[in-house]
Amino acid sequence: MPYLLKNADKTDINNYRPSFLPSFSKIYEKLVYNRLSQYVEKLCILNDCQFGFRSNRSTSMAVLEMTDKINEAVENKQFSIGVFVDLSKAFDTLNHNILLKLLRYSWSSL
Predict the structure, then answer these.
(1) Which of 15, 16, 51, 93 supports an S-S bond with 57, CB 3.0-4.6 Å?
(2) Residue by residue, what is the 3-state secondary structure of the chain?
């Protein structure tokens, strides 16, 4: 299978990705995504201010939410602080056994 370079450093193996995925993998990924999304939405796990990777939400909505909060703070003569976190490779750092247990539980409860 051919691999494509993602970043400039050709010596780092993590900078390569497969150039295509088999159809089965794409279908399986979509099924897992849909199932996990339903689970998260049903149990209201995510905060309403979580806009990334959610249906009917966008970065524009996130900017509007932040702007509204800042305007509200200014009107109330309060301070406003923003903390922005980019969790690169977050999936790689979580305990996959716990995730699999949660998924098994969610399949049985839906």
Answers:
(1) 51
(2) CCEEECCCCCCCHHHEEECCCCHHHHHHHHHHHHHHHHHHHHCCCCCCCCCCCCCCCCHHHHHHHHHHHHHHHHHCCCCCCCCCCCCCCHHHHCCHHHHHHHHHHHHHHC
| The two structure tokens encoding residue 97 | 């056994």
Q: What's the average pLDDT block by block, 10 residues per block, for the chain (110 residues)?
A: 66 69 78 90 87 84 92 95 80 83 77
The structure tokens 């049985």 sit at: 108
48, two tokens: 């309403």
Task: Go through 2-19 and write b for each residue having 16 or more CB atoms within 10 A of its CB, e for each that does not.
Answer: eeeeeeeeeeeeeeeeee
Whole-model pTM: value is 0.45
